[in-house]
């Protein structure tokens, strides 16, 4: 999917923009259109928008400051919320011994093809190869069994912000499927299942808030099928997003109840108040930098990135627009003052005072990077004590008095955040199709829909759906059974097997 050369040449700003006549020739812009070649468009926009740079190891990407600032904003929110829940941060090593990795066979089987191994130190072969963590259950739980002895040691609630390595072999895609990525992983242990169940849903709600409140992306909360749940776990809940352009669902984040399976494997026992031995109940949960890729896919357009104000590194860019014979310095000073006022009011604002680029080049540059709001200041604006404000999401322009600047900018940014969510929800909802028969299901699948269908909840039937829909585009599978269940009239039959249906489930192709 990479389009490095086109992206790099388009991202080259040295197109001699010093003179006024080069204003039309920006040297920016994307060479692919979102609706014509989504994959190439996506690859180009994440590079040209200065989010990532391709690295010389396939499937690994450099996360540039424009990306890291988004990650840090989400991290600050989530970290504060889990601390309110008395969850503490820790850090475990990236290396895993093969012995520990193999202790939980069911669990590691799902990851086995993706595990990367260190086999040498310098020129010397290691006696025992060492794995790089694909996830940390097997890394952490031997120590949980050491630290948990009695009921007073519970609950044990830890989280770590770290990287994991999964040696993806097919179609690495920036953010969506990479060989190394950043995430948080929470690992908790409780005395009772009720406590574990409660936490699973509390964490899932935080993930919904990250997607809907910060990234302006609508998601469905639900439970994964037995086939799709976390290997070795009791049950998995997830939030599911959908990319209408590709007709694919995408798992946004997961919160698993592991039950007592890992407690059995790793001897995580405790003594209760009565002196009786018991096994702990465990959860694990995580979200990753994949969130950022979903945001790009959902909101981006043919001009580049479109960032929701809540996560944008720069929410407002202030650009001077001097004309011939204008007092350039006074205009530059007005831009600096405007940016300072906005920063003091709590916004993330910058003034672009570079004199080697034309205003037109700057407009295109910051549009490509997705900045939610642009303020333009020229001689007329100064004479009228106003600024011109241009929205990134819909390109609408409005002149606002400088006296009322802060209040107006606040309202506009809030409106952009809500408008992005509403537009994404409208597009997502238009992509949902109810299918009650196999014919309706396959028609909807070919139309790139997210399908809500009645299902008998049998594993073999789900496997059969995968087999029957295999093709160039990839097989369909269950995405999740939504917690918010529509009414299921008596006598409703499963779309795939014709047996009595027990629930409504979302189906589709996925990333």
Automatic annotation (TrEMBL):
InterPro entries: aa-tRNA-synt_IIb, aa-tRNA-synth_II, aa-tRNA-synth_II/BPL/LPL, Anticodon-bd, Anticodon-bd_dom_sf, Pro-tRNA-ligase_IIa, Pro-tRNA-ligase_IIa_arc-type, Pro-tRNA_ligase_II_C
Keyword Thylakoid among UniProt keywords: no
Gene Ontology molecular function, alphabetical: ATP binding; proline-tRNA ligase activity
Residue ranges occupied by any Aminoacyl-transfer RNA synthetases class-II family profile domain in the UniProt entry: 70-308
Any Gene Ontology biological process: prolyl-tRNA aminoacylation
Basic and acidic residues: bias regions: 18-28
Keyword terms, alphabetized: Aminoacyl-tRNA synthetase, ATP-binding, Ligase, Nucleotide-binding, Protein biosynthesis
Enzymatic class: ligase
One of the record's GO cellular component terms: cytoplasm
Region (Disordered): 1-28
Catalytic activity: tRNA(Pro) + L-proline + ATP = L-prolyl-tRNA(Pro) + AMP + diphosphate
Protein's UniProt keywords contain Ribonucleoprotein: no
Alphabetical list of SUPFAM superfamilies matching this protein: C-terminal domain of ProRS (SSF64586), Class II aaRS ABD-related (SSF52954), Class II aaRS and biotin synthetases (SSF55681)
Enzyme Commission number(s): 6.1.1.15
Record NCBIfam families: proS_fam_I
Protein name according to UniProt: proline--tRNA ligase
Organism name: Macleaya cordata (Five-seeded plume-poppy)
């Amino acid at each position: 999917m990479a389009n490095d050369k086109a992206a790099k040449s388009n991202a080259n700003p040295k197109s001699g923009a010093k003179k006024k006549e080069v204003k039309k020739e920006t040297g920016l812009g994307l060479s692919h259109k979102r609706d014509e070649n989504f994959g190439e468009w996506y690859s180009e926009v994440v590079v040209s928008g200065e989010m990532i740079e391709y690295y010389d190891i396939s499937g690994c990407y450099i996360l540039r400051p424009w990306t890291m600032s988004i990650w840090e904003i989400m991290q600050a929110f989530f970290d504060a919320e889990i601390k309110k829940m008395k969850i503490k941060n820790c850090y475990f090593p990236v290396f895993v011994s093969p012995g520990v990795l193999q202790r939980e066979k069911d669990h590691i089987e799902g990851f086995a093809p993706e595990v990367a191994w260190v086999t040498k130190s310098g020129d010397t072969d290691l006696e025992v190869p060492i794995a790089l963590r694909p996830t940390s259950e097997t890394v952490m739980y031997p120590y949980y069994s050491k630290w948990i002895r009695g009921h007073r040691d519970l609950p044990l609630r830890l989280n770590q912000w770290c990287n994991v390595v999964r040696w993806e072999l097919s179609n690495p895609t920036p953010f969506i499927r990479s060989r190394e990525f950043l995430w948080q992983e929470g690992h908790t242990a409780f005395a009772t299942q009720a406590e574990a169940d409660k936490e699973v849903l509390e964490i899932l709600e935080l993930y919904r808030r990250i997607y809907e409140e910060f990234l302006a992306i609508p998601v469905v909360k639900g439970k994964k099928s037995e086939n799709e749940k976390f290997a070795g776990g009791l049950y998995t809940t997830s939030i599911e997003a959908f990319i209408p352009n590709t007709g694919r669902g995408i798992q946004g984040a997961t919160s698993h109840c592991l039950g007592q399976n890992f407690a059995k494997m790793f001897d995580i026992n405790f003594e209760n108040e009565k002196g009786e031995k018991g096994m702990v109940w465990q959860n694990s949960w995580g979200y990753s930098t994949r969130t950022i890729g979903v945001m790009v896919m959902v909101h981006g357009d043919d001009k580049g990135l479109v960032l929701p104000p809540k996560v944008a590194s720069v929410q407002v860019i202030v650009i001077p627009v001097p004309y011939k014979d204008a007092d350039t310095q006074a205009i530059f000073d007005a831009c600096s003052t405007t940016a300072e006022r906005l920063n003091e009011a709590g916004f993330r604002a910058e003034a672009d005072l570079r004199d080697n680029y034309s205003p037109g080049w700057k407009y295109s540059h910051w549009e490509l990077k997705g900045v939610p709001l642009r303020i333009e200041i020229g001689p007329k604006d100064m004479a009228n004590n106003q600024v011109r404000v241009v929205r990134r999401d819909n390109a609408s322009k409005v002149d606002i008095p400088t006296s009322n600047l802060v209040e107006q900018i606040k309202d506009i940014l809030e409106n952009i955040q809500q408008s992005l969510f509403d537009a994404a929800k409208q597009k997502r909802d238009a992509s949902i199709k109810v299918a009650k028969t196999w014919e309706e299901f396959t028609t909807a699948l070919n139309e790139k829909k997210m399908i809500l269908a009645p299902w008998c909840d049998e594993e073999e039937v789900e496997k059969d759906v995968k087999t029957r829909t295999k093709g160039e585009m990839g097989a369909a599978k269950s995405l999740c059974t939504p917690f918010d269940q529509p009414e299921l009239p008596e006598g409703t039959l499963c779309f795939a097997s014709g047996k009595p249906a027990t629930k409504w489930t979302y189906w589709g192709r996925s990333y």
